[in-house]
Amino acid sequence: GGRIVSRGVLFLCVANSARSQMAEGITRQLAGDRLRVQSAGSAPSKVNPLAVRVLAEIGVDASGQRSKSVDEGASLERFRSVRDELRRRIAAWLHQEGHSPAAKAGD
To answer: Kind and range of the H or E element at 25?
Structure first.
């Protein structure tokens, strides 16, 4: 049977085309099934073929990865932002949705 993964990481970027895709691929390879790994963007586009090629050069297969909207990974409790600007936007969105640490402190 498969192992149930309860922890995850979500790498966020604007386009979810290169840096966050690379972070997803490398982290997934390093973590294996111990961690749920995703990437997403606030304005997703398409995965940059150069990012896939660079990952392949270091032994990471990202050929099946696709650019995804942040809405597809919003259930993850922890995330790493690739860009500071997006980090502020996501924090504001999480607060608005009731997922901010400040909102949970009152629970």
So the answer is: helix 19-31
Q: Which helix (H) or strand (E) holds 103?
A: helix 101-105
Question: Contact 23/11 with Cβ under 8 angstroms?
Answer: yes
Q: pLDDT, tens digit, for every residue of 14-52? A: 999 999 999 999 999 999 988 888 899 989 999 999 999
Question: What is the SS3 assignment for 77-92?
Answer: CCEEECCHHHHHHHHH
DSSP state string for 45-100:
----HHHHHHHHHTT---TT----BGGGSTT-S-EEESSHHHHHHHHHHHHHTT-S
Say if pTM beats, i.e. exceeds, 0.85: no
